[in-house]
């Protein structure tokens, strides 16, 4: 019974640490760019797009399709980088709480 109580305490501790780590993810900003910096997108660690910046040289109706493709590429790069950083951040903040179980990804537990 003592082991079960100890385990429940660890689970509660992990939940508290995960909640704190999730809250700080909103403060992390990651930028992705495409077209040699002509389009930039910034997202946070919670995978929310914060801003998109388009270079003035691209603002032309004839370039609309190119601009759209560059925006998609920039946002996808920023989201990929935010995903990597989020997982590293959550791992760091749960170290020593949960055993390292292959295939058990804490980062996916709280994405919704």
TrEMBL record:
KW Cytoplasm (keyword) present: yes
Keyword set, alphabetical order: Coiled coil, Cytoplasm, DNA-binding
Ranges in coiled-coil conformation: 4-31
Subcellular location: Cytoplasm, Nucleoid
InterPro entries reported in the protein's UniProt record: YbaB-like_sf, YbaB/EbfC
Main location: cytoplasm
Gene3D superfamilies on file: Nucleoid-associated protein YbaB-like domain
Top-level taxon of origin: Bacteria
Assembly notes: Homodimer.
Protein family membership: Belongs to the YbaB/EbfC family.
Function text: Binds to DNA and alters its conformation. May be involved in regulation of gene expression, nucleoid organization and DNA protection.
NCBIfam families on file: DNA_YbaB_EbfC (TIGR00103)
Protein name: Nucleoid-associated protein N7E81_16435
